[in-house]
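Narrative of activities, Objective 1.

The group set out to show that a structural description can be obtained from nothing but a protein's sequence at a throughput compatible with the screening campaign. Below is one input-output pair from the validation batch, recorded exactly as produced.
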Amino acid sequence: MLQWTLSTLLADRKHVLASVGAVAGAFALALFFEAVFAGESTQIVAYLRHSDADVWVMQDGVSNMHMATSFVLDWKTEAVRRVPGVQRVTPMLYLNTVMQAGDGHWFSFIVGLEEGDTRAGPWAVSGGKATPGPGEIIVPDTLGRLAGLRLGDEARVADRSFTVAGFSEGTFSMANSVAFVPMADLSDIMSTFGTVSYLLVDAEDGVDATDLAARIETEVDTVAALPGERFVDNDWQVAMQMGLEIVSLMVAIGGALAMLLTAFTIYVSVSRRERELAVMKALGFRNRAIRASALLQAMIVATGGVVVAVGIVAAAVPVTKALLPQVTLTIMPGAVARIGTIALIVAMASATLSVRRLTRVDPLSAFRS
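Output recorded for this entry:
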């Protein structure tokens, strides 16, 4: 049976290749959208994840950073430091606004850092300084390339001009970029002297973040405290509502189209072998063997299509990054496994529907002209 199946496939190479190509094209589109979604959904909370705070402390009633406003009186920094279990507290100021750089305007998260602070600053720098001095700004390297910025150029935040002193890595997404300025300069722009936005709290070894967050809320008046992972998850949920859900919808549409095209391709591929199956019946093959042959052919086409699709997207990722550096692409093993599973299920279902009709074929039809 295996030999028969392979021989029939090899006898019609052009059609098999066309079927594999159709399945590959459909699932390459779906996998590409999955890569965009995975990359952007990870990148949009990259700053929070890389900050890696055990607990985030903010204004009471606030539970995330994306498009949020939080003001905490700066004396509460010391109050949080005195809470048992706290190892270190790093204050930062935050503003979401539009930054002007080059000839463009970029929606940005502006993070105000204390002098010499690296804890809440960029985690990787591709050029220039790692921390901004007075009147300086650290911008994402991707934004720098898109805006044509060089070290020493100017960028504007609100009505204030800053000198580009460094370029950070991994701080840009399609939804927003993250730039860093001195806290004193950002305080002046926001007119918020004596306040900070968030406190990044590092717990002592062995201290549970959830317990420490509850302790901080109990001992420090009118603040909210959340474990790091919960804070990041809250921010991701808000980001999803603001735009990533559109990418998620594109993933769903691409997946639906891929399934429909795969189902049609497999159905046609099996149906056009009606004469071959009639020959099999004439030679005495049982319907069970015919079904097995059809399902095996469908599996081969679907598997080949998925493998080619992965290759297409893997080749497209570096090209896309070169042409569209603002798009973050990440191929997740889970997405590949999910798409492969879907392709096989759809192919098997389509082949089953097709072969149910073909098993009723009259064996004598194989000998009719």
